[in-house]
């Protein structure tokens, strides 16, 4: 997608009012500094979570296209009455995600192999999947790697938006936030280059292709 076709909102700087979803083709959430399981939440984080609660109620009520990576698991998991905890966190690195039968049939995952590699780095994850969710991809250390609620709302625990260079940039930004042990960032980036994590981004291209509307 051309940059001109995107509208970026930096929620850690402040939440907008209600979005007119008719003006967009879909929503993509690409991670952030917050965790739903944080013991102490500053006012801005509580504001962001409340804003997303209202937005996702509309998304799920209308079948509106939504794709959330990493932080999106917490957002969509809580919106669907699932349980998010720190039981299945993963240090920054590369994981092998395996498609379920439902995942192999989902158009957003068209063209991806049954097992693919993707970048991760998270403190929390889905412990109990929402009852109405469809499990699309699983992992070893973190069982829920991707799921869908309703027809068009997706969440991934991994980061399909990252290639190796973007992964390196992300890890530098979060250098002191507890996502990797000393030297873990260099190992994670090297692994992401070797295993070509950017190929997981095909699902974002599919999502955009399936839901883009003429401007």
From TrEMBL:
Classification via PROSITE patterns: GATASE_TYPE_1
Keywords: Glutamine amidotransferase, Transferase
MF-aspect GO terms: transferase activity
GO cellular component terms listed in the entry, alphabetical order: cytosol
Keyword set includes Transferase: yes
Boundaries of every Glutamine amidotransferase domain copy: 21-166
Designated name of the protein: Glutamine amidotransferase
